[in-house]
Fold this sequence. Notes:
Mean pLDDT: 96
Oligomer: single chain
Largest sheet: 9 strands, mixed
Bound molecules: flavin-adenine dinucleotide
Amino acid sequence: MENTNAFIKYAGKEIPVLFSVDVCVAGGGPSGTAAAIRAAENGASTVLLERGIALGGLAVLGCVYPFMDPQAPDSDTPYVTEIKKRLQQHGVATFDGVTQQVWHNPETLALIYDEMCEEANVEILYQTTLVDTVCTGAVITACIVQTIAGLAAISAKIFIDGTGDAFLSRSAGIPYECGYEKTGNNQPLSFRFEMGGIDVERLSRYITLDLKEDWCKSKPPYFEIAEAMHRTQRYKLEELMARGVETGELTQEEAEYMQAYSIIGKDGVMSMNCPEIPVRFRAADPISYSKAVSCGRKMMRHIADYLIRHLPGFEHAFISREAAMLGARESWRIRGRYYLQESDYHNQSRFPDAVCRTAWFIDAHGEKVSEKLPPGGYYEIPYRSLVTDEIQNLIVTGRCISASFILQASMRIQPTCMSIGEAAGIAAAWCLAHKIPANALHWESIPAAKRSYVSNADAAK
Ligand SMILES: Cc1cc2nc3c(=O)[nH]c(=O)nc-3n(C[C@H](O)[C@H](O)[C@H](O)COP(=O)(O)OP(=O)(O)OC[C@H]3O[C@@H](n4cnc5c(N)ncnc54)[C@H](O)[C@@H]3O)c2cc1C
């Protein structure tokens, strides 16, 4: 890893080049972190930029919990398996014995990511925001970042966009989409939070014995509650929330969506998957987004106060943590070499250059919720949806890969994003070692033993 004394000219200023490396990953979410770790483990000097002070993206900074299960047979790539193993080594009991979702612990996850980066020799730059890229023709030569000390540059041979918002790609001029082509809406934002002081046993007895709700199949300490009025599935808790609208304690928007999961290793704490902020607040408009923060915080308070007053088990509860980033389910997505679409979900598409598989249903809040695929069914994500025609040394990972609004609503869950990131990291290191432009790599040309995922469609090799 070269820590340089060089400077470059940017916007009329001389700014220091902090690092000159093989791979620069922007965004330390589930996908960007996986990409950085795997790139470094495969021999590439790697810098990982994160605007917050913890890795994990929405899973840590956004309080998004737990990992949903891709619901496809053998979908776990080695990195996902390793994360689960490390959580268990840290004493986090990830499985409830009934469902396949991974119950983790956000603070432990952040610690594990730091440990893995240290072991792999990934240089993390915290509180560092990517603000621009510098390109020469079809190559990104450097990115410009805002660090705690001011503007700086990082030069690299390959850049990986793990920002979730395709920010690195957009700043390099890559074509993109944003929102649903039929309505112009992004998926709704959520402002997630955690509540402590909950008597989860009492809550569980009330839900299962008094309300006779059998939706949550697991028992405390693995326990979840849910209601979603705007869906077709009916939950017993809807009556409670509807009463809040009648009495004026809740608005209809506050009452419409509420979900909570117990957190392993945080007794009495639940991760609140709400409030869901109305779609008139736009995920891709800085002014509207900022108003969404204030609106969401008010909604959060109303919902918390209402549950404390009326939901058994919440009598002594309080807001113990609010997310450090809004939950954007979808914002900007690149248009890359392959454009994944809804038909790929229904047709269960397979690709020789697939980097992972998933069967998570299409869950485009407010727009479309699909049927699940039949048991054993899945579709694959090709490497070509991670790269673009325009820039040779760019790989995109996570929720902003080349996918339609509807398809993205299936591939966006955290384990799938991790698997995509893992492949991005392996691909970057392979391209550097073999002098192949990242956008010209045929993933299936990497020996199977070195790939994190091998498609059955590539069985001939
Ligand atoms: C409300 C909500 C509920 C969800 N529920 C679940 C669930 O229950 N289970 C599940 O598995 N998935 C769930 N998801 C989906 C999942 O959390 C995301 O799709 C996933 O985290 C995407 O991973 P990512 O790495 O692509 O991006 P992100 O998690 O968004 O991470 C992007 C990272 O990049 C950083 N970043 C962004 N821009 C810059 C910049 N310019 N410079 C530096 N750093 C930058 C951010 O700070 C962040 O750390 C949910 C999502 C939302 C919003």
